[in-house]
Amino acid sequence: MSASSDLRLTVVTKPLPAAPAFTEILDAAHPLLWRRRGAGLVGYGLTAQLEFSGATRIADAATAWQQIAAAATVSDTVNLPGSGLAAFGSFAFADSSSATSVLVIPEVIIGRRDGVAFVTTITAEGQSSAEARIPDIAPLRTRASVAFSPGHQSEEGYRSSVREGVSRIQRGDMSKVVLARDLRGSLAEGADIRPMIIDLAQSYPDCWTFSVDGLIGSSPETLVRVHDKTMDARVLAGTAARGTDAHTDLEAAAELATSSKDLDEHAFAVRSVIDSLEPFTSHLSTGESPFTLRLANLWHLATDVTGAVADGATSLDLVAALHPTAAVAGTPRDAALALIEELEPFDRGRYAGAVGWVGASGDGEWAIALRCVQVDGDQVTAYAGCGVVANSDAEAELRETTMKFRPVVEALSPID
Protein backbone atom coordinates (compact mmCIF):
# COMPACT_ATOMS: atom_id res chain seq x y z
CA MET A 1 0.00 0.00 0.00
CA SER A 2 1.16 3.52 -0.75
CA ALA A 3 0.07 6.47 1.36
CA SER A 4 -1.92 8.81 -0.86
CA SER A 5 -0.18 11.90 0.53
CA ASP A 6 3.21 10.52 -0.63
CA LEU A 7 2.21 9.69 -4.19
CA ARG A 8 3.42 12.03 -6.91
CA LEU A 9 2.28 10.63 -10.22
CA THR A 10 3.16 11.54 -13.78
CA VAL A 11 0.44 10.47 -16.20
CA VAL A 12 0.57 10.53 -20.00
CA THR A 13 -2.27 9.42 -22.30
CA LYS A 14 -1.81 9.13 -26.05
CA PRO A 15 -4.03 7.77 -28.82
CA LEU A 16 -3.28 4.34 -30.25
CA PRO A 17 -3.84 3.57 -33.93
CA ALA A 18 -5.59 0.35 -32.86
CA ALA A 19 -5.85 -2.10 -30.00
CA PRO A 20 -6.81 -5.78 -29.94
CA ALA A 21 -9.88 -6.98 -28.09
CA PHE A 22 -9.33 -6.62 -24.36
CA THR A 23 -9.91 -10.33 -23.88
CA GLU A 24 -6.82 -10.98 -26.02
CA ILE A 25 -4.47 -8.77 -24.00
CA LEU A 26 -5.26 -9.56 -20.36
CA ASP A 27 -2.29 -9.57 -18.03
CA ALA A 28 -1.50 -13.19 -17.13
CA ALA A 29 -0.44 -12.69 -13.51
CA HIS A 30 -2.88 -10.02 -12.29
CA PRO A 31 -5.62 -9.34 -14.86
CA LEU A 32 -7.21 -5.90 -14.48
CA LEU A 33 -10.29 -5.35 -16.61
CA TRP A 34 -13.38 -3.19 -16.91
CA ARG A 35 -15.34 -3.87 -20.09
CA ARG A 36 -18.80 -3.51 -21.57
CA ARG A 37 -19.77 -3.81 -25.25
CA GLY A 38 -16.11 -3.84 -26.22
CA ALA A 39 -15.29 -0.52 -24.53
CA GLY A 40 -13.45 0.02 -21.27
CA LEU A 41 -10.02 -0.36 -19.68
CA VAL A 42 -7.41 -3.08 -19.22
CA GLY A 43 -4.47 -2.55 -16.87
CA TYR A 44 -0.95 -3.91 -16.47
CA GLY A 45 1.59 -3.76 -13.67
CA LEU A 46 1.21 -1.91 -10.38
CA THR A 47 2.18 1.67 -9.63
CA ALA A 48 0.31 1.75 -6.30
CA GLN A 49 -2.44 -0.04 -4.42
CA LEU A 50 -4.44 1.79 -1.77
CA GLU A 51 -6.27 -0.27 0.84
CA PHE A 52 -9.25 0.66 3.00
CA SER A 53 -11.54 -0.97 5.55
CA GLY A 54 -14.32 -0.25 7.99
CA ALA A 55 -17.43 1.89 7.82
CA THR A 56 -15.68 4.85 6.16
CA ARG A 57 -13.81 2.80 3.52
CA ILE A 58 -15.48 4.41 0.48
CA ALA A 59 -15.34 7.95 1.87
CA ASP A 60 -11.69 7.40 2.81
CA ALA A 61 -11.00 6.20 -0.74
CA ALA A 62 -12.68 9.32 -2.15
CA THR A 63 -10.51 11.58 0.01
CA ALA A 64 -7.32 9.68 -0.81
CA TRP A 65 -8.09 9.76 -4.52
CA GLN A 66 -8.72 13.50 -4.50
CA GLN A 67 -5.30 14.00 -2.88
CA ILE A 68 -3.59 11.81 -5.47
CA ALA A 69 -5.35 13.51 -8.39
CA ALA A 70 -4.54 16.99 -7.08
CA ALA A 71 -0.81 16.14 -6.83
CA ALA A 72 -0.58 14.36 -10.21
CA THR A 73 0.89 15.82 -13.39
CA VAL A 74 -1.38 14.73 -16.22
CA SER A 75 -0.98 15.05 -19.99
CA ASP A 76 -4.04 13.72 -21.81
CA THR A 77 -4.57 14.40 -25.51
CA VAL A 78 -7.50 11.96 -25.74
CA ASN A 79 -9.96 13.37 -23.19
CA LEU A 80 -12.41 10.48 -23.13
CA PRO A 81 -13.92 8.68 -20.13
CA GLY A 82 -11.15 6.53 -18.66
CA SER A 83 -8.25 8.40 -20.27
CA GLY A 84 -5.74 10.25 -18.11
CA LEU A 85 -5.24 9.20 -14.50
CA ALA A 86 -7.49 6.29 -13.50
CA ALA A 87 -7.68 3.57 -10.85
CA PHE A 88 -9.59 0.31 -10.70
CA GLY A 89 -11.55 -0.19 -7.49
CA SER A 90 -13.39 -2.83 -5.48
CA PHE A 91 -15.10 -2.37 -2.12
CA ALA A 92 -16.26 -4.82 0.53
CA PHE A 93 -19.98 -5.18 1.11
CA ALA A 94 -20.09 -4.94 4.92
CA ASP A 95 -18.55 -2.40 7.28
CA SER A 96 -17.25 -5.28 9.40
CA SER A 97 -15.90 -7.36 6.50
CA SER A 98 -12.40 -8.81 6.75
CA ALA A 99 -12.02 -8.26 2.99
CA THR A 100 -9.82 -5.32 2.03
CA SER A 101 -11.25 -2.61 -0.22
CA VAL A 102 -8.81 -1.38 -2.85
CA LEU A 103 -7.96 1.24 -5.42
CA VAL A 104 -5.43 -0.22 -7.87
CA ILE A 105 -3.32 2.16 -9.96
CA PRO A 106 -1.60 0.23 -12.78
CA GLU A 107 1.54 1.19 -14.66
CA VAL A 108 -0.12 0.99 -18.07
CA ILE A 109 -3.78 1.22 -19.12
CA ILE A 110 -5.06 0.38 -22.60
CA GLY A 111 -8.47 1.92 -23.19
CA ARG A 112 -11.12 2.05 -25.86
CA ARG A 113 -14.09 4.42 -25.97
CA ASP A 114 -16.27 5.66 -28.83
CA GLY A 115 -14.08 3.80 -31.32
CA VAL A 116 -10.88 5.48 -30.08
CA ALA A 117 -8.05 3.40 -28.59
CA PHE A 118 -5.54 4.96 -26.20
CA VAL A 119 -2.64 4.10 -23.90
CA THR A 120 -1.91 5.66 -20.51
CA THR A 121 1.31 5.35 -18.53
CA ILE A 122 1.24 6.14 -14.79
CA THR A 123 4.59 6.60 -13.06
CA ALA A 124 5.25 7.36 -9.41
CA GLU A 125 8.10 9.65 -8.39
CA GLY A 126 11.27 7.57 -8.30
CA GLN A 127 9.92 4.84 -10.61
CA SER A 128 10.99 4.16 -14.18
CA SER A 129 8.32 5.00 -16.73
CA ALA A 130 6.70 2.06 -18.54
CA GLU A 131 6.60 2.03 -22.33
CA ALA A 132 3.48 3.49 -23.92
CA ARG A 133 2.54 0.33 -25.81
CA ILE A 134 0.53 -2.85 -25.49
CA PRO A 135 2.68 -5.15 -23.34
CA ASP A 136 3.72 -8.58 -24.54
CA ILE A 137 1.07 -11.07 -23.45
CA ALA A 138 1.78 -14.59 -22.21
CA PRO A 139 -0.05 -17.39 -24.08
CA LEU A 140 -3.07 -18.93 -22.36
CA ARG A 141 -2.22 -21.84 -20.08
CA THR A 142 -4.41 -24.64 -18.71
CA ARG A 143 -7.98 -23.41 -18.45
CA ALA A 144 -9.15 -22.90 -14.86
CA SER A 145 -12.02 -25.18 -13.87
CA VAL A 146 -13.72 -25.59 -10.51
CA ALA A 147 -15.99 -28.27 -9.08
CA PHE A 148 -18.15 -26.13 -6.80
CA SER A 149 -19.82 -27.41 -3.66
CA PRO A 150 -21.95 -25.65 -1.04
CA GLY A 151 -19.93 -23.28 1.13
CA HIS A 152 -20.82 -22.07 4.60
CA GLN A 153 -24.52 -21.89 3.68
CA SER A 154 -26.11 -25.18 2.64
CA GLU A 155 -29.18 -25.37 0.44
CA GLU A 156 -31.36 -26.33 3.40
CA GLY A 157 -29.74 -23.61 5.47
CA TYR A 158 -30.64 -21.12 2.76
CA ARG A 159 -34.26 -22.28 2.67
CA SER A 160 -34.40 -21.88 6.44
CA SER A 161 -32.94 -18.37 6.25
CA VAL A 162 -35.48 -17.34 3.62
CA ARG A 163 -38.35 -18.66 5.73
CA GLU A 164 -37.01 -16.74 8.73
CA GLY A 165 -36.67 -13.61 6.59
CA VAL A 166 -40.30 -13.91 5.45
CA SER A 167 -41.38 -14.32 9.07
CA ARG A 168 -39.55 -11.16 10.15
CA ILE A 169 -41.04 -9.22 7.23
CA GLN A 170 -44.55 -10.43 7.97
CA ARG A 171 -44.26 -9.30 11.59
CA GLY A 172 -43.20 -5.84 10.39
CA ASP A 173 -39.45 -5.76 11.10
CA MET A 174 -38.68 -4.72 7.50
CA SER A 175 -40.13 -4.70 4.01
CA LYS A 176 -37.38 -6.58 2.16
CA VAL A 177 -34.13 -8.38 2.88
CA VAL A 178 -31.62 -9.78 0.37
CA LEU A 179 -30.19 -13.13 1.45
CA ALA A 180 -27.25 -14.81 -0.24
CA ARG A 181 -25.52 -18.17 -0.24
CA ASP A 182 -22.05 -19.26 -1.29
CA LEU A 183 -20.32 -21.97 -3.31
CA ARG A 184 -16.67 -22.89 -2.87
CA GLY A 185 -14.02 -24.78 -4.81
CA SER A 186 -10.33 -25.00 -5.65
CA LEU A 187 -8.17 -24.27 -8.68
CA ALA A 188 -5.56 -26.69 -9.94
CA GLU A 189 -1.96 -25.52 -9.66
CA GLY A 190 -1.00 -23.38 -12.63
CA ALA A 191 -4.59 -22.91 -13.84
CA ASP A 192 -5.21 -19.79 -15.93
CA ILE A 193 -8.23 -17.65 -14.95
CA ARG A 194 -8.09 -15.57 -18.16
CA PRO A 195 -10.31 -18.03 -20.11
CA MET A 196 -12.99 -17.52 -17.45
CA ILE A 197 -12.86 -13.75 -17.93
CA ILE A 198 -12.96 -14.18 -21.71
CA ASP A 199 -16.02 -16.44 -21.49
CA LEU A 200 -17.88 -13.98 -19.28
CA ALA A 201 -17.09 -11.03 -21.56
CA GLN A 202 -18.18 -12.91 -24.67
CA SER A 203 -21.29 -14.49 -23.14
CA TYR A 204 -22.56 -11.32 -21.42
CA PRO A 205 -21.49 -8.39 -23.64
CA ASP A 206 -24.15 -6.05 -22.20
CA CYS A 207 -22.90 -6.60 -18.63
CA TRP A 208 -19.93 -5.00 -16.91
CA THR A 209 -17.20 -7.66 -17.03
CA PHE A 210 -14.58 -6.94 -14.38
CA SER A 211 -11.42 -8.33 -12.87
CA VAL A 212 -9.99 -6.38 -9.95
CA ASP A 213 -7.66 -7.88 -7.34
CA GLY A 214 -9.11 -11.38 -7.74
CA LEU A 215 -12.76 -10.31 -7.91
CA ILE A 216 -14.04 -11.52 -11.29
CA GLY A 217 -17.52 -11.39 -12.75
CA SER A 218 -20.07 -9.94 -15.17
CA SER A 219 -22.59 -7.67 -13.50
CA PRO A 220 -25.81 -6.48 -15.14
CA GLU A 221 -26.32 -3.70 -12.60
CA THR A 222 -24.86 -0.21 -12.94
CA LEU A 223 -24.53 1.24 -9.45
CA VAL A 224 -23.67 4.69 -10.78
CA ARG A 225 -21.87 6.25 -13.72
CA VAL A 226 -20.69 9.89 -13.69
CA HIS A 227 -19.35 11.83 -16.66
CA ASP A 228 -19.18 15.57 -17.18
CA LYS A 229 -21.57 16.36 -14.29
CA THR A 230 -24.20 13.88 -15.47
CA MET A 231 -25.00 10.65 -13.65
CA ASP A 232 -27.01 7.57 -14.43
CA ALA A 233 -27.80 4.35 -12.59
CA ARG A 234 -29.65 1.18 -13.48
CA VAL A 235 -31.73 -0.52 -10.79
CA LEU A 236 -32.36 -4.25 -11.14
CA ALA A 237 -34.68 -6.12 -8.80
CA GLY A 238 -37.11 -8.87 -9.75
CA THR A 239 -35.92 -11.93 -11.65
CA ALA A 240 -37.29 -14.72 -13.85
CA ALA A 241 -35.69 -17.55 -15.81
CA ARG A 242 -35.62 -17.28 -19.61
CA GLY A 243 -38.09 -19.47 -21.48
CA THR A 244 -37.16 -22.56 -23.46
CA ASP A 245 -38.45 -21.11 -26.77
CA ALA A 246 -39.68 -17.78 -28.15
CA HIS A 247 -43.22 -18.29 -26.86
CA THR A 248 -42.32 -19.33 -23.30
CA ASP A 249 -39.62 -16.65 -23.19
CA LEU A 250 -42.17 -13.91 -23.86
CA GLU A 251 -44.51 -15.49 -21.32
CA ALA A 252 -41.76 -15.41 -18.70
CA ALA A 253 -41.11 -11.73 -19.38
CA ALA A 254 -44.83 -10.89 -19.22
CA GLU A 255 -45.28 -12.78 -15.95
CA LEU A 256 -42.32 -10.95 -14.43
CA ALA A 257 -43.65 -7.56 -15.56
CA THR A 258 -46.98 -8.22 -13.80
CA SER A 259 -45.73 -10.08 -10.71
CA SER A 260 -46.80 -8.20 -7.58
CA LYS A 261 -43.98 -9.80 -5.58
CA ASP A 262 -41.33 -8.69 -8.08
CA LEU A 263 -42.85 -5.26 -8.64
CA ASP A 264 -42.89 -4.63 -4.88
CA GLU A 265 -39.26 -5.74 -4.59
CA HIS A 266 -38.32 -3.50 -7.51
CA ALA A 267 -40.11 -0.46 -6.08
CA PHE A 268 -38.16 -0.79 -2.82
CA ALA A 269 -34.89 -0.82 -4.76
CA VAL A 270 -35.76 2.21 -6.92
CA ARG A 271 -36.87 4.24 -3.90
CA SER A 272 -33.60 3.41 -2.14
CA VAL A 273 -31.53 4.72 -5.07
CA ILE A 274 -33.57 7.91 -5.46
CA ASP A 275 -33.41 8.73 -1.75
CA SER A 276 -29.64 8.21 -1.71
CA LEU A 277 -28.92 10.28 -4.83
CA GLU A 278 -31.19 13.28 -4.25
CA PRO A 279 -28.70 15.16 -1.97
CA PHE A 280 -26.09 15.03 -4.77
CA THR A 281 -28.23 16.10 -7.71
CA SER A 282 -30.19 19.10 -8.89
CA HIS A 283 -32.79 16.85 -10.53
CA LEU A 284 -33.49 13.16 -11.09
CA SER A 285 -35.67 11.39 -13.61
CA THR A 286 -36.86 7.80 -13.95
CA GLY A 287 -39.18 5.85 -16.19
CA GLU A 288 -42.82 5.65 -15.15
CA SER A 289 -42.62 1.87 -14.82
CA PRO A 290 -39.85 -0.73 -14.94
CA PHE A 291 -38.92 -2.50 -18.16
CA THR A 292 -37.87 -6.12 -18.63
CA LEU A 293 -34.15 -6.52 -19.30
CA ARG A 294 -33.12 -9.66 -21.17
CA LEU A 295 -29.84 -11.37 -20.31
CA ALA A 296 -28.46 -14.66 -21.60
CA ASN A 297 -30.10 -16.70 -18.85
CA LEU A 298 -32.46 -14.34 -16.99
CA TRP A 299 -35.08 -11.63 -17.24
CA HIS A 300 -34.80 -8.72 -14.79
CA LEU A 301 -37.08 -5.82 -13.97
CA ALA A 302 -35.05 -2.67 -14.60
CA THR A 303 -35.38 1.07 -14.11
CA ASP A 304 -32.91 3.71 -15.30
CA VAL A 305 -32.27 6.77 -13.13
CA THR A 306 -30.56 9.86 -14.58
CA GLY A 307 -29.71 13.31 -13.25
CA ALA A 308 -27.32 16.24 -13.01
CA VAL A 309 -24.53 15.96 -10.44
CA ALA A 310 -24.07 18.79 -7.95
CA ASP A 311 -20.79 20.72 -8.05
CA GLY A 312 -17.97 18.94 -6.28
CA ALA A 313 -19.64 15.53 -6.04
CA THR A 314 -17.57 12.63 -7.42
CA SER A 315 -18.52 9.13 -8.48
CA LEU A 316 -17.00 7.79 -5.24
CA ASP A 317 -19.16 10.20 -3.22
CA LEU A 318 -22.22 8.78 -4.96
CA VAL A 319 -21.00 5.21 -4.42
CA ALA A 320 -20.62 5.93 -0.70
CA ALA A 321 -24.15 7.34 -0.53
CA LEU A 322 -25.74 4.51 -2.53
CA HIS A 323 -24.07 1.48 -0.98
CA PRO A 324 -25.68 -0.81 -0.07
CA THR A 325 -28.82 -0.34 -2.14
CA ALA A 326 -32.06 -2.13 -1.40
CA ALA A 327 -31.31 -4.34 -4.41
CA VAL A 328 -28.50 -6.07 -2.48
CA ALA A 329 -29.40 -5.37 1.15
CA GLY A 330 -33.09 -4.60 1.67
CA THR A 331 -35.21 -1.94 3.27
CA PRO A 332 -35.11 -0.33 5.76
CA ARG A 333 -31.36 -0.62 5.24
CA ASP A 334 -30.21 -0.93 8.86
CA ALA A 335 -32.79 -3.57 9.77
CA ALA A 336 -32.00 -5.56 6.63
CA LEU A 337 -28.24 -5.42 7.25
CA ALA A 338 -28.72 -6.62 10.81
CA LEU A 339 -30.75 -9.60 9.61
CA ILE A 340 -28.19 -10.42 6.90
CA GLU A 341 -25.47 -10.51 9.56
CA GLU A 342 -27.66 -12.76 11.71
CA LEU A 343 -28.75 -15.22 9.02
CA GLU A 344 -25.78 -15.44 6.62
CA PRO A 345 -23.05 -17.67 8.12
CA PHE A 346 -20.27 -16.10 6.04
CA ASP A 347 -18.57 -12.83 5.18
CA ARG A 348 -19.77 -11.59 1.77
CA GLY A 349 -16.36 -10.07 1.12
CA ARG A 350 -16.60 -7.88 -1.97
CA TYR A 351 -19.68 -9.61 -3.34
CA ALA A 352 -22.49 -7.04 -3.71
CA GLY A 353 -20.03 -4.23 -3.07
CA ALA A 354 -19.01 -1.63 -5.65
CA VAL A 355 -16.55 -2.43 -8.43
CA GLY A 356 -15.36 -0.14 -11.23
CA TRP A 357 -12.99 2.72 -11.94
CA VAL A 358 -12.48 6.37 -11.03
CA GLY A 359 -10.70 9.10 -12.98
CA ALA A 360 -8.78 12.21 -11.93
CA SER A 361 -11.86 14.45 -12.09
CA GLY A 362 -13.87 12.04 -9.93
CA ASP A 363 -15.87 10.78 -12.90
CA GLY A 364 -16.14 7.01 -13.14
CA GLU A 365 -18.21 3.92 -13.73
CA TRP A 366 -19.27 1.60 -10.91
CA ALA A 367 -21.31 -1.59 -10.91
CA ILE A 368 -22.62 -3.76 -8.11
CA ALA A 369 -20.38 -6.83 -7.91
CA LEU A 370 -22.84 -9.56 -8.86
CA ARG A 371 -22.48 -12.81 -10.84
CA CYS A 372 -18.94 -12.98 -9.52
CA VAL A 373 -16.28 -15.03 -7.79
CA GLN A 374 -13.43 -14.08 -5.49
CA VAL A 375 -10.16 -15.86 -6.26
CA ASP A 376 -7.71 -16.03 -3.35
CA GLY A 377 -4.74 -18.20 -4.27
CA ASP A 378 -6.23 -21.55 -5.27
CA GLN A 379 -9.52 -20.92 -3.44
CA VAL A 380 -12.58 -19.70 -5.34
CA THR A 381 -15.82 -18.48 -3.75
CA ALA A 382 -19.00 -17.68 -5.69
CA TYR A 383 -22.01 -15.82 -4.31
CA ALA A 384 -25.63 -15.33 -5.31
CA GLY A 385 -28.57 -13.76 -3.51
CA CYS A 386 -32.28 -12.99 -3.84
CA GLY A 387 -34.63 -10.34 -2.58
CA VAL A 388 -37.01 -11.72 0.04
CA VAL A 389 -40.37 -10.03 0.58
CA ALA A 390 -43.55 -10.95 2.43
CA ASN A 391 -44.80 -13.52 -0.10
CA SER A 392 -41.45 -15.08 -1.02
CA ASP A 393 -41.21 -18.86 -1.32
CA ALA A 394 -38.04 -20.49 0.00
CA GLU A 395 -37.81 -23.11 -2.75
CA ALA A 396 -38.33 -20.51 -5.47
CA GLU A 397 -35.63 -18.26 -4.01
CA LEU A 398 -33.20 -21.19 -3.90
CA ARG A 399 -33.88 -21.88 -7.59
CA GLU A 400 -33.26 -18.21 -8.36
CA THR A 401 -29.83 -18.33 -6.71
CA THR A 402 -29.01 -21.36 -8.87
CA MET A 403 -29.87 -19.34 -11.98
CA LYS A 404 -27.69 -16.48 -10.79
CA PHE A 405 -24.74 -18.79 -10.16
CA ARG A 406 -24.91 -20.01 -13.75
CA PRO A 407 -22.61 -17.42 -15.43
CA VAL A 408 -19.61 -18.07 -13.20
CA VAL A 409 -20.24 -21.81 -12.81
CA GLU A 410 -20.35 -22.24 -16.59
CA ALA A 411 -17.29 -20.03 -17.10
CA LEU A 412 -15.35 -22.28 -14.70
CA SER A 413 -16.66 -25.57 -16.08
CA PRO A 414 -14.24 -27.84 -17.94
CA ILE A 415 -14.50 -27.96 -21.72
CA ASP A 416 -15.40 -31.47 -22.94
Could you estimate the helical fraction of the residues in percent?
A: 25-40%
* Quaternary structure type: single chain
| CATH topology group | Anthranilate synthase
**Quick one: how many beta strands?**
23
For the record, the CATH architecture stands as 4-Layer Sandwich
Question: Count of helical segments?
Answer: 8
Look at the structure and name the CATH superfamily. Answer: Anthranilate synthase
> What class, by secondary structure content?
alpha+beta
- Categorize the overall geometry: globular
Q: Please give the largest β-sheet.
A: 13 strands, mixed
Mean pLDDT: 92
Total discrete domains:
1
How large is the share of residues in beta strands?
A: 25-35%
Radius of gyration: 21 Å
**Which CATH class applies here?**
Alpha Beta
What is the rounded distance between the termini? 42 Å
**Low-pLDDT ranges:** none
Describe what this molecule looks like in 3D:
- The model has no long low-confidence stretch (mean pLDDT about 90).
- The longest helix has 18 residues, at about 260-275.
- With about 425 residues, the chain is α+β, with helices and mostly antiparallel strands.
- The strands form two sheets. Strands 1, 2, 3, 5, 8, 9, 10, 11, 12, 13, 19, 22 and 23 form a 13-stranded mixed β-sheet that branches. Strands 4, 6, 7, 14, 15, 16, 17, 18, 20 and 21 form a ten-stranded antiparallel β-sheet that branches.
- The protein has helices at about 55-70, 155-170, 195-205, 245-260, 260-275, 315-320, 335-345, 395-410, and strands spanning about 10-15, 30-35, 40-45, 50, 75, 85-90, 100-105, 110-115, 115-125, 150, 175-185, 210, 215-220, 220-225, 230-240, 280-285, 290-295, 300-310, 330, 355-360, 365-370, 370-375, 380-390.
- It has a single domain, classed as Anthranilate synthase (4-Layer Sandwich).
- α1 packs antiparallel against α6 (about 315-320).
- The N and C termini lie far apart (about 40 Å).
- The chain has eight helices and 23 strands.
- β8 (about 110-115) and β9 form a beta hairpin.
- Helices cover about 25% and strands about 35% of the residues.
